[in-house]
Design goal:
With about 260 residues, the protein is an alpha/beta fold. It contains 8 helices and 8 strands, in the order βαβαβαβαβαβααβαβ. Strand 1, helix 1 and strand 2 form a beta-alpha-beta unit. It is globular.
């Protein structure tokens, strides 16, 4: 039996200062291919990615964080990937943890694995208000989803191919709430979710959102949970909770240019 094909996707936006360092730390013997989707960056992200020999997809206009991920997953599935690893190219997460992240999927124990930062939240420099908000939202999600995870809000995660094939993620938001919508869909469709602890770094070049957007994101998560409950009780029927045979076959509204 052939080993699973593992593809790393990096949704990039103004990541020129950290992309190379992130890529250099990816264990070469654990990954088959790396893809970068550039969301109309204003810096030299594309040039850096080309210099590294990475396969790059360009958005002709900014699609947002969720829109970037949609392209990432579509293009990764097209390569025939069996396991897709989403890694932020801002060097906040430790790429050396990829083998540990994908192990539960390779061993048949999980369909999604999240890289939780919470064991290292203080040491990694996560701002106090973010730690409090993260723990509160995670507590709410655990209550609704019936899980016992330590974090849902990580940018380091791995997916089994079949989950992305049958989850209508292209219907999700193009904003940051996409991360939680795809998890809510996975729970809805019965995916097995595990987590590992991963070191992380907060520093000037690491991507983060300001307080105003954090508040909007938090309210969006709570709204998503209300929608999830209403759908579960049969009081609402949202398209995002209807499985598709091949979700990625739907064409994104702005197909990227491969370079």
């Amino acid at each position: 039996m052939n080993p699973p094909k593992i593809v790393v996707i990096m949704p990039a936006y103004n990541a020129s200062r950290t992309l190379e360092q992130t890529f250099r730390d990816i264990p070469r013997d654990s990954v088959d291919e790396c893809l970068v989707v550039d969301d109309f960056s204003a810096d030299s992200t594309v040039e850096v990615a080309r210099k590294l020999g990475l396969r790059v997809f360009l958005h002709s206009e900014n699609q947002g964080y969720g829109g970037n991920q949609k392209t990432c997953y579509v293009e990764a599935l097209k390569t025939g990937a069996d396991i897709i690893v989403m890694l932020h190219p801002d060097y906040q997460y430790d790429p050396k943890k990829i083998p540990e992240l994908v192990a539960p999927i390779r061993e048949g124990r999980a369909d999604i694995v999240l890289g939780s930062r919470m064991a290292y939240a203080v040491a990694g420099g996560m701002p106090f208000y973010k730690r409090i908000a993260n723990r509160f939202l995670t507590w709410c999600e655990n209550k609704i989803f019936g899980l016992k995870l330590s974090e849902y809000h990580t940018g380091f995660r791995a997916f089994r191919r079949s989950i992305l094939e049958t989850t209508p993620f292209l219907l999700n938001s193009n904003d940051f709430i996409f991360d939680q919508e795809i998890i809510a869909q996975a729970v809805w469709f019965g995916a097995r979710i595990e987590e590992i602890s991963v070191p992380h770094r907060y520093f000037a070049e690491a991507s983060t959102i300001n307080l105003a957007r954090s508040i909007r994101y938090g309210l969006g998560v709570l709204g998503l949970l209300v929608s999830f409950v209403l759908n579960r009780k049969g009081l609402r029927s949202s398209r995002m909770f209807r499985p598709l045979h091949h979700a990625y076959a739907e064409v994104p509204p702005h197909p990227p240019e491969a370079v």
